[in-house]
Design brief:
By secondary structure, the chain is an alpha+beta fold. It folds into two domains: 10-99, ACT domain (Alpha-Beta Plaits); 103-288, Multidrug efflux transporter AcrB transmembrane domain (Multidrug efflux transporter AcrB transmembrane fold), CATH 1.20.1640.10. The protein is 67% helix and 9% strand. A hairpin with a 2-residue loop joins β2 (46-52) and β3. The mean pLDDT is 79.
Length: 289
Protein backbone atom coordinates (compact mmCIF):
# COMPACT_ATOMS: atom_id res chain seq x y z
CA UNK A 1 0.00 0.00 0.00
CA UNK A 2 2.73 2.48 0.97
CA UNK A 3 4.98 1.82 -2.02
CA UNK A 4 2.72 0.89 -4.93
CA UNK A 5 -0.92 1.89 -4.93
CA UNK A 6 -1.93 4.12 -2.01
CA UNK A 7 -5.04 6.11 -2.94
CA UNK A 8 -6.42 8.78 -0.63
CA UNK A 9 -10.14 9.44 -0.58
CA UNK A 10 -11.55 12.86 -1.34
CA UNK A 11 -11.69 13.40 2.44
CA UNK A 12 -7.91 13.87 2.24
CA UNK A 13 -7.33 15.24 -1.26
CA UNK A 14 -10.51 17.16 -1.93
CA UNK A 15 -12.87 16.26 -4.75
CA UNK A 16 -16.29 14.89 -5.61
CA UNK A 17 -18.12 11.56 -5.42
CA UNK A 18 -21.36 10.74 -7.23
CA UNK A 19 -23.29 7.52 -6.60
CA UNK A 20 -25.75 6.52 -9.35
CA UNK A 21 -28.41 3.87 -9.80
CA UNK A 22 -26.82 2.62 -13.04
CA UNK A 23 -24.27 0.02 -14.14
CA UNK A 24 -20.94 1.74 -14.87
CA UNK A 25 -18.78 -1.37 -15.09
CA UNK A 26 -18.63 -1.45 -18.90
CA UNK A 27 -18.98 2.27 -19.60
CA UNK A 28 -16.26 4.65 -20.73
CA UNK A 29 -17.48 7.33 -18.36
CA UNK A 30 -14.03 7.81 -16.85
CA UNK A 31 -12.59 8.62 -20.29
CA UNK A 32 -15.44 11.00 -21.17
CA UNK A 33 -15.27 12.75 -17.80
CA UNK A 34 -11.49 13.09 -18.03
CA UNK A 35 -11.85 14.74 -21.44
CA UNK A 36 -14.56 17.08 -20.15
CA UNK A 37 -12.43 18.23 -17.22
CA UNK A 38 -9.37 18.70 -19.43
CA UNK A 39 -11.48 20.81 -21.79
CA UNK A 40 -12.28 23.00 -18.77
CA UNK A 41 -8.51 23.44 -18.29
CA UNK A 42 -8.34 21.41 -15.10
CA UNK A 43 -5.05 19.68 -14.26
CA UNK A 44 -3.83 17.26 -11.60
CA UNK A 45 -7.04 15.30 -11.13
CA UNK A 46 -8.00 11.64 -11.12
CA UNK A 47 -11.24 9.95 -12.22
CA UNK A 48 -12.15 6.41 -11.10
CA UNK A 49 -15.20 4.16 -11.33
CA UNK A 50 -15.91 2.26 -8.13
CA UNK A 51 -18.64 0.87 -5.92
CA UNK A 52 -20.34 2.16 -2.77
CA UNK A 53 -23.05 0.36 -0.84
CA UNK A 54 -23.78 -1.98 -3.79
CA UNK A 55 -24.19 0.96 -6.22
CA UNK A 56 -21.67 2.19 -8.79
CA UNK A 57 -19.94 5.48 -8.09
CA UNK A 58 -17.77 8.05 -9.84
CA UNK A 59 -14.81 9.42 -7.88
CA UNK A 60 -13.20 12.67 -9.00
CA UNK A 61 -10.13 13.68 -6.99
CA UNK A 62 -9.51 17.34 -7.76
CA UNK A 63 -8.48 20.45 -5.87
CA UNK A 64 -11.18 23.14 -5.74
CA UNK A 65 -10.34 26.38 -3.99
CA UNK A 66 -13.47 28.55 -4.36
CA UNK A 67 -17.23 28.36 -4.73
CA UNK A 68 -17.12 28.98 -8.49
CA UNK A 69 -14.84 25.97 -9.03
CA UNK A 70 -17.07 23.81 -6.83
CA UNK A 71 -20.12 24.72 -8.92
CA UNK A 72 -18.23 24.22 -12.19
CA UNK A 73 -16.91 20.76 -11.28
CA UNK A 74 -20.31 19.69 -10.00
CA UNK A 75 -22.04 20.88 -13.18
CA UNK A 76 -19.39 19.25 -15.41
CA UNK A 77 -19.76 15.86 -13.74
CA UNK A 78 -23.55 15.90 -13.83
CA UNK A 79 -23.68 17.15 -17.44
CA UNK A 80 -21.23 14.44 -18.55
CA UNK A 81 -23.42 11.80 -16.92
CA UNK A 82 -26.36 13.10 -18.93
CA UNK A 83 -24.48 13.61 -22.23
CA UNK A 84 -23.10 10.06 -22.20
CA UNK A 85 -26.55 8.63 -21.42
CA UNK A 86 -25.12 7.14 -18.24
CA UNK A 87 -28.19 8.43 -16.43
CA UNK A 88 -31.59 9.31 -17.87
CA UNK A 89 -32.13 12.18 -15.47
CA UNK A 90 -30.60 13.71 -12.35
CA UNK A 91 -33.04 11.59 -10.32
CA UNK A 92 -30.74 8.62 -11.00
CA UNK A 93 -28.09 10.27 -8.79
CA UNK A 94 -28.47 8.67 -5.37
CA UNK A 95 -25.76 10.62 -3.58
CA UNK A 96 -23.44 13.50 -4.34
CA UNK A 97 -20.74 14.93 -2.08
CA UNK A 98 -17.82 17.31 -2.50
CA UNK A 99 -14.90 18.02 -0.15
CA UNK A 100 -12.69 21.09 -0.09
CA UNK A 101 -8.89 20.60 0.01
CA UNK A 102 -8.64 22.63 3.23
CA UNK A 103 -10.81 20.04 4.98
CA UNK A 104 -8.65 17.28 3.52
CA UNK A 105 -5.47 18.93 4.83
CA UNK A 106 -6.98 19.21 8.31
CA UNK A 107 -8.07 15.56 8.32
CA UNK A 108 -4.62 14.44 7.08
CA UNK A 109 -2.83 16.39 9.81
CA UNK A 110 -5.09 15.21 12.63
CA UNK A 111 -4.96 11.57 11.41
CA UNK A 112 -1.14 11.57 11.47
CA UNK A 113 -1.11 13.16 14.92
CA UNK A 114 -3.61 10.60 16.23
CA UNK A 115 -1.52 7.64 15.03
CA UNK A 116 1.84 9.03 16.19
CA UNK A 117 0.64 10.24 19.59
CA UNK A 118 -1.35 7.05 20.09
CA UNK A 119 1.83 4.99 19.82
CA UNK A 120 3.88 7.37 21.99
CA UNK A 121 1.29 7.54 24.80
CA UNK A 122 0.88 3.75 24.82
CA UNK A 123 4.66 3.36 25.15
CA UNK A 124 4.69 5.81 28.08
CA UNK A 125 1.86 3.88 29.70
CA UNK A 126 3.94 0.70 29.50
CA UNK A 127 6.94 2.58 30.90
CA UNK A 128 5.07 3.68 34.04
CA UNK A 129 2.79 0.65 34.44
CA UNK A 130 5.76 -1.70 34.69
CA UNK A 131 8.11 0.65 36.53
CA UNK A 132 7.88 -1.51 39.66
CA UNK A 133 9.71 -4.43 38.02
CA UNK A 134 12.68 -2.50 36.60
CA UNK A 135 15.07 -4.65 38.64
CA UNK A 136 13.76 -7.76 36.88
CA UNK A 137 13.15 -6.42 33.39
CA UNK A 138 13.42 -2.92 31.96
CA UNK A 139 10.02 -1.20 31.46
CA UNK A 140 11.67 0.89 28.71
CA UNK A 141 12.48 -2.36 26.91
CA UNK A 142 8.83 -3.46 27.19
CA UNK A 143 7.73 -0.09 25.82
CA UNK A 144 10.01 -0.49 22.80
CA UNK A 145 8.76 -4.02 22.17
CA UNK A 146 5.16 -2.79 22.42
CA UNK A 147 5.78 -0.14 19.74
CA UNK A 148 7.45 -2.73 17.48
CA UNK A 149 4.47 -5.10 17.79
CA UNK A 150 2.03 -2.23 17.15
CA UNK A 151 3.93 -1.28 13.98
CA UNK A 152 3.81 -4.94 12.91
CA UNK A 153 0.04 -5.16 13.47
CA UNK A 154 -0.66 -1.88 11.67
CA UNK A 155 1.57 -2.92 8.77
CA UNK A 156 -0.26 -6.23 8.29
CA UNK A 157 -3.70 -4.57 8.45
CA UNK A 158 -2.63 -1.72 6.14
CA UNK A 159 -0.94 -4.13 3.73
CA UNK A 160 -4.07 -6.26 3.45
CA UNK A 161 -6.08 -3.08 2.88
CA UNK A 162 -3.63 -2.18 0.12
CA UNK A 163 -4.21 -5.54 -1.57
CA UNK A 164 -7.93 -4.87 -1.43
CA UNK A 165 -7.33 -1.54 -3.17
CA UNK A 166 -5.86 -3.46 -6.12
CA UNK A 167 -9.13 -5.36 -6.48
CA UNK A 168 -11.60 -2.50 -6.01
CA UNK A 169 -10.83 1.06 -7.26
CA UNK A 170 -13.44 2.44 -4.84
CA UNK A 171 -11.42 1.32 -1.80
CA UNK A 172 -9.33 4.26 -0.60
CA UNK A 173 -7.69 5.65 2.50
CA UNK A 174 -10.40 7.51 4.42
CA UNK A 175 -11.26 8.48 7.99
CA UNK A 176 -12.86 5.09 8.64
CA UNK A 177 -9.52 3.46 7.81
CA UNK A 178 -7.76 5.71 10.35
CA UNK A 179 -10.39 4.91 13.01
CA UNK A 180 -9.91 1.18 12.30
CA UNK A 181 -6.13 1.50 12.68
CA UNK A 182 -6.50 3.34 16.00
CA UNK A 183 -8.80 0.53 17.16
CA UNK A 184 -6.16 -1.95 16.01
CA UNK A 185 -3.53 -0.16 18.09
CA UNK A 186 -5.67 -0.24 21.23
CA UNK A 187 -6.68 -3.88 20.82
CA UNK A 188 -3.12 -4.93 20.01
CA UNK A 189 -1.53 -3.27 23.03
CA UNK A 190 -4.30 -4.63 25.27
CA UNK A 191 -3.40 -8.23 24.45
CA UNK A 192 0.33 -7.52 24.74
CA UNK A 193 -0.09 -5.89 28.16
CA UNK A 194 -1.98 -8.93 29.45
CA UNK A 195 0.97 -11.15 28.57
CA UNK A 196 3.53 -8.70 29.97
CA UNK A 197 1.50 -8.39 33.18
CA UNK A 198 1.52 -12.16 33.63
CA UNK A 199 5.29 -12.14 33.07
CA UNK A 200 5.61 -9.51 35.79
CA UNK A 201 3.47 -11.51 38.22
CA UNK A 202 5.47 -14.66 37.61
CA UNK A 203 8.77 -12.81 38.00
CA UNK A 204 7.68 -11.53 41.41
CA UNK A 205 6.25 -14.91 42.44
CA UNK A 206 9.23 -16.94 41.24
CA UNK A 207 11.96 -14.48 42.22
CA UNK A 208 13.17 -16.62 45.15
CA UNK A 209 13.20 -19.75 43.01
CA UNK A 210 15.21 -17.89 40.37
CA UNK A 211 17.77 -16.86 42.97
CA UNK A 212 18.16 -20.50 43.94
CA UNK A 213 18.49 -21.43 40.22
CA UNK A 214 15.52 -23.80 40.29
CA UNK A 215 13.98 -21.96 37.34
CA UNK A 216 15.45 -19.66 34.73
CA UNK A 217 14.31 -16.44 33.09
CA UNK A 218 13.37 -18.48 30.04
CA UNK A 219 11.11 -20.68 32.19
CA UNK A 220 9.25 -17.61 33.48
CA UNK A 221 8.60 -16.29 29.98
CA UNK A 222 7.51 -19.68 28.67
CA UNK A 223 5.26 -20.31 31.68
CA UNK A 224 3.62 -16.88 31.24
CA UNK A 225 2.94 -17.51 27.56
CA UNK A 226 1.25 -20.84 28.21
CA UNK A 227 -0.85 -19.33 30.99
CA UNK A 228 -2.17 -16.54 28.76
CA UNK A 229 -2.32 -18.34 25.41
CA UNK A 230 -5.77 -19.87 25.90
CA UNK A 231 -7.19 -16.52 27.01
CA UNK A 232 -5.61 -14.67 24.07
CA UNK A 233 -6.79 -17.17 21.46
CA UNK A 234 -10.31 -17.37 22.94
CA UNK A 235 -10.63 -13.56 22.99
CA UNK A 236 -9.38 -13.28 19.42
CA UNK A 237 -11.71 -15.98 18.12
CA UNK A 238 -14.75 -14.41 19.79
CA UNK A 239 -13.78 -11.03 18.30
CA UNK A 240 -13.23 -12.63 14.90
CA UNK A 241 -16.74 -14.13 14.90
CA UNK A 242 -18.27 -10.68 15.38
CA UNK A 243 -15.98 -9.09 12.79
CA UNK A 244 -16.79 -11.78 10.19
CA UNK A 245 -20.51 -11.21 10.77
CA UNK A 246 -20.00 -7.45 10.34
CA UNK A 247 -18.11 -8.04 7.09
CA UNK A 248 -20.65 -10.50 5.63
CA UNK A 249 -23.82 -8.60 6.52
CA UNK A 250 -22.47 -5.04 6.59
CA UNK A 251 -22.09 -2.66 3.66
CA UNK A 252 -19.95 0.33 2.77
CA UNK A 253 -17.84 1.76 5.58
CA UNK A 254 -18.93 -0.95 8.02
CA UNK A 255 -17.55 -3.65 5.71
CA UNK A 256 -14.20 -1.84 5.30
CA UNK A 257 -13.99 -1.26 9.06
CA UNK A 258 -14.65 -4.95 9.70
CA UNK A 259 -12.06 -5.99 7.10
CA UNK A 260 -9.31 -3.93 8.74
CA UNK A 261 -10.20 -5.24 12.21
CA UNK A 262 -10.26 -8.80 10.89
CA UNK A 263 -6.73 -8.45 9.59
CA UNK A 264 -5.66 -7.25 13.02
CA UNK A 265 -7.23 -10.25 14.77
CA UNK A 266 -4.92 -12.43 12.72
CA UNK A 267 -1.83 -10.21 13.03
CA UNK A 268 -2.46 -9.13 16.64
CA UNK A 269 -2.92 -12.63 17.98
CA UNK A 270 0.26 -13.74 16.25
CA UNK A 271 2.35 -10.76 17.39
CA UNK A 272 1.24 -10.83 21.04
CA UNK A 273 2.09 -14.50 21.48
CA UNK A 274 4.86 -15.18 18.99
CA UNK A 275 6.52 -11.76 18.67
CA UNK A 276 6.10 -9.54 21.74
CA UNK A 277 7.05 -11.95 24.54
CA UNK A 278 9.87 -13.78 22.69
CA UNK A 279 11.34 -10.48 21.51
CA UNK A 280 11.18 -9.09 25.05
CA UNK A 281 12.97 -12.22 26.30
CA UNK A 282 15.76 -11.91 23.71
CA UNK A 283 16.31 -8.20 24.43
CA UNK A 284 16.13 -8.68 28.22
CA UNK A 285 18.86 -11.31 28.01
CA UNK A 286 21.08 -8.97 26.00
CA UNK A 287 20.47 -6.09 28.41
CA UNK A 288 21.12 -8.26 31.48
CA UNK A 289 24.42 -9.40 30.02
Amino acid sequence: MFFTNMRYSIQFTGGMEVVVDQDLAWSNLDVELTAALQWKWYEDFNVAIGEKDWFDSVLVQIAVDNDDKVSEVTETVKQTLLDTNTIASLDDILESSITWPSIGEYITRTAKNALIWGMILMAFYILFAFAGMRELISPLLLGIVTIITMIFDVSIAAGAYGLLMNLNPAVQIDTIFIIALLTVLWYSVNDTIVIFDRIRENFVEKEKAMEEWRITRKDVFEMSLWQTMRRSIATSLSTLLVVVAMYIFGTGILKMFAFTLGMWVIAGTYSSIFLAAPFAFILSNKVSK
